[in-house]
User: Which sequence fits this backbone?
């Protein structure tokens, strides 16, 4: 009886250890929901907070919620379209007070489909470098 109990205990322990090794580590990323806008054409070529020049044809954005250099996936909650942009600038504090969470390049806003509307409700999710 003791041998059977010992064998059963070893088997259960082995299964538990094996299950723990097979588990996947999920990295929780930051998500922000709010209003998105896009840069004025007059800002093309101006210097950003990261030190680079802003270009409306690149997939970049300004945000105060994410670190500079962070890649984020932006989802237009009105139509479901998504785009990935890199944060390379900061927004003016007045925009944040108005509920803006991201200010996109025109190229990104065009892909999200809100150029004519001007503003849209979005979800912004930080993505890892592997994605």
Assistant:
């Amino acid at each position: 009886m003791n041998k059977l109990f010992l064998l059963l205990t070893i088997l259960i322990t082995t299964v538990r250890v094996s299950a723990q090794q097979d588990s996947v580590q999920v990295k929780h990323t930051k998500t922000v929901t709010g209003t998105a806008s896009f840069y004025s054409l007059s800002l093309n070529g101006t210097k950003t907070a990261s030190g680079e020049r802003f270009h409306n044809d690149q997939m970049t954005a300004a945000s105060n919620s994410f670190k500079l250099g962070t890649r984020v996936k932006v989802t237009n909650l009105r139509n479901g379209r998504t785009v990935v942009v890199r944060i390379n600038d900061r927004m003016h504090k007045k925009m944040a007070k108005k509920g803006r969470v991201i200010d996109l390049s025109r190229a990104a806003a065009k892909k999200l489909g809100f150029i004519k509307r001007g503003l849209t409700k979005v979800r912004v999710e930080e993505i890892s470098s592997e994605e």
Remarks:
- Residues 37 and 117 are 9 Å apart (CA to CA).
- The chain is about 25% helix and 30% strand.
